[in-house]
Amino acid sequence: MEVSDIMTTIRQRKGLKVTEVAEDHLSQKKNVKSDGRVPSGGKLWKRFSLIVGGIVAVSLGLLTSVYVATLHENDLWFSNIKEVEREISFRTECGLYYSYYKQMLQAPSIRQGLHDLVHDNKTESLRTINILERMNVYQEVFLSILYKILPVQRYLEPVYFYIYTLFGLQALYVIALYITSWLLSGTWLSGLLAAFWYIINRIDTTRVEFTIPLRENWALPFFAVQIAAITYLLRPHLQPLHERLTLLVVFLSTFLFSLTWQFNQFMMLIQALVLFILDSLDMLPTAKVMMLYIIQVTALLLVCILQFFNSMILGSLAISFNVSVLLARTIQRNLKTGGLLNRLGKLFLHVLLVLCLTLLVNNFIKKILNLESDEHIFKFLKAKFGFGSTSGSANVQPIDKMEKCTVALKPGAAYNLIHTVLFGCLALSTMRMKYLWTSHMCVFASFGLCSTEVWGFILKSVHLDTPQRICVIKYLVPIATLLYLSHKFWPGMMDELSELREFYDPDTVELMNWIKSNTPETAAFAGSMQLLAGVKLCTGRILTNHPHYEDKSLRERTKQVYQIYAKRSPEEVYRTLRSFGTDYVILEDSICYERRHSRGCRLRDLLDIANGHIMDGVGDNEPNLKPSAYPRFSSTVSSTNNSRDVRPSCHLCF
């Protein structure tokens, strides 16, 4: 079959960058009378479909919020447990983030609360750090202020105001995914299918019901709104007012996404790469792409200012890449003119120029700022994932006046396709990033089932394509799929909602109560990062280290604190801990005697290798590893007189 048979025909005038999708053009012609007016019946049906689709979108979003809130309540019996148990349920870094919400609420005034965050001396012992600069906690600040000024204290406890806000954002998330799929396919049935897939694949699409305060649960709904707005922006023939309003939505959602997640720069970089690839292949209008670059840079710089000129944002590849593309565009203005070889040469030089400028700008910024906060992320990616050259190449044809050319995808579909592919690569490298990819897979898969172009291609390949058949199959297959999914998954969802559990962790509750009752408020604690976040939230005591890992000095400090699980002398460990102002150290048997992971992957094994010591247990060791002169500190000190067994799996030393 000829390529031209399966591609959508568009028309381009020489010197004028207009992409008209034949499908949309024909549908518009059908609904227009000879005098240029749209038939009233077509208008009414369009409005009716829009209203019904909007009601379905809002209903699904609200149902998703209620669904995850019910799962959270049923899993923990959250309404019936004590306050300390509720706080302990916010595990690891979740507890750290929630502690700043609690701190703002307990402050005598908003000004004092902000001052305490900017001059914090409890999160890291012997240091005064700016929490608003170091961490993305503006959402906790905003929510605490909102709780104070709104008349909701009589009806909602602070913790419920917090978690209901996060569950409410899930409604926004689902609605945004629904709208994106609707925009791509042209039918809200596709949005319904995308939302349904998101819900039934909840384990792989979200973890909000058990890790509520995680930054991704704040950020991803805004990111989904941004993608929906960009998908709409890339449609041809937008009215100027609609385009300006869409750009405003893109900017606000980009800004809120960047403000609420510390990994914003990597998502922005992927998005910029998608725009760059498609613009280089002449699949997107350059003017809109340039506006999106400017929006990205503006949003990131604004977040940088709000985070007191956070160096990690300034030194991000996203800013360097966007600035480099904008600079390269001012140097090379006419990339899409001339013959085939001329255009390929210009494209090669443009890509080379952008890459060189990106490296130069990024290295210059990092040298000036002496930035090393994000080096662990790149080391992790290099160890986990090998980046190679992209696959495929573009056959660019010279365009004469009124000459026809072909494209395979609409701009919005092409943008979402490359987005999904790159997110899939990111998910392969980092498990937590799969939640970003799977939700977009739901959108793109539903678009594929409801796409006129896809079914037209399939039917044309077997010589059965007619407009009537395409229309019938376009609606029949998604409806059949929804009925099948409902039949298969609905009983399981009802069973899941009927399961009742209860939070139960008496050991940790006893530990927190003992700390509050038997230690001074100025005491500093050392231990594992995940447990110390709970110590700060439940007791308000000072920490030596914590789970927020985007700081080099904190990573070095954590490595030193973790020598409590290494083969070190008690005197050496004592000197190290006292250098950080530590008063108490919490030793956990689950770390000291860990058996979940294989030999070589346990924390104590990693410490032994880093210290040049032979690992415990039967197995091979590297030739350069030597026996330690001392037993493991945690095993030794837990049995001495200066240790208090405050819970069966935890020892408190002082």
TrEMBL record:
Membrane-topology annotation of the record: Multi-pass membrane protein
Cell inner membrane listed as a keyword: no
Subcellular location: Membrane
Annotated signal sequence range: none
InterPro entries hit by this protein: Dpy-19/Dpy-19-like
Database matches in PANTHER family: C-MANNOSYLTRANSFERASE DPY19L3-RELATED, DPY-19-LIKE 1, LIKE (H. SAPIENS)
Similarity comment: Belongs to the dpy-19 family.
Identification of the protein by name: Dpy-19 like C-mannosyltransferase 3
Organism: Crocodylus porosus (Saltwater crocodile)
